[in-house]
Amino acid sequence: MSKRVLIIGSGFFGAVSARELTNAGHQCQVIEKRDHIGGNCYTRYSPEADSHQHVYGAHIFHTNSEKIWSYINQYAAFNNYVNRVKAAHGDRLYSFPINLLTLHQLFGVRTPQEAKARIAEDCIPNANPKNMEEYCLATFGRSIYETFFYGYSRKQWNRDPKELPAAIARRVLIRFNFDDNYFADRYQGIPIGGYTAIFQKLLDGIPVELQTDFFADQEAWLRKYDHVIFTGPIDAYFKRQFGALEYRSLRWDTELLDTPDAQGCAVVNHTSADIPYTRTYEHKHFDLNYTRDQTLLTKEYPIDWKPGGLEVYPVNTDENQALYAKYSAAANELEGKVTFGGRLGSYRYYDMHQVIGAALKTASDLIDSWR
Length: 371
Prior knowledge:
This protein is an alpha/beta fold.
């Protein structure tokens, strides 16, 4: 039996869910509070730079899953972009993520054995690190920590690393070879023609209402549909009755520069605490298109989040996780009527391929339950 499904949000979770449910014969309606589809993956074309601007920060598609790679390639062809980041600290540039070239630039070492020995000299033993700083000092030492992570983390989270959980730094990978590919996944690239075209194809033939606020008439929307897929902030759905979950937000300043190439690569991390932005993006390097003498350069600034602002990163503290557990329990009571998904609906940071995988599973489970 065909179901009428309301989907709030047109990012990857909402758009993939809408596509899969529509293909299975269900009637989907998508509403989106912004004036465009695609969520934070939205791109727009700049004819002056002949490149697609990643409006809400860099999005590099990568995955180890052949299933996800095959799925997304139904909706776009991808170029062969590889994310080779540079890190700027003071007046120096370093290869990043940390690899043997980085360690040569920092310490002058030339072999894996020399690099491991030099890092060991720098480490401060600590069998039970209680925060990010203690973990970094115990795992790779003060020089690496202060060059690449201290200032960046202070800016990103607006907290001293002593106040951040050690888990944040457990993802840091040091390579004792010259591999400078930021991602270790088998598949990687940028969609030719930008991300927005993917969402246009995913939502082809599905009604979409832009600049529509679900919360302006929440109860009326809920009465009209058999099922709701909600991809907004889970605490907002419940009117923050247990309190507001905490996020970090970002601001992007983009300039069109009269130069064919401003920084020589797509992404530079700015790790000094006295530089207010954390990253700069040069968008033509994502597209691998160098036909113009002008270029778009974006500076990314972390900012405090307030209700009504753009939620980007969940702040993973014990207090926030305890609060999320209350909202998750409330969401479970709505099972069968409302499904929560995506980064904001799940209060966790997802990469794009993870969101797509979660949406495919959600849609499949719903389709099976409605048979």
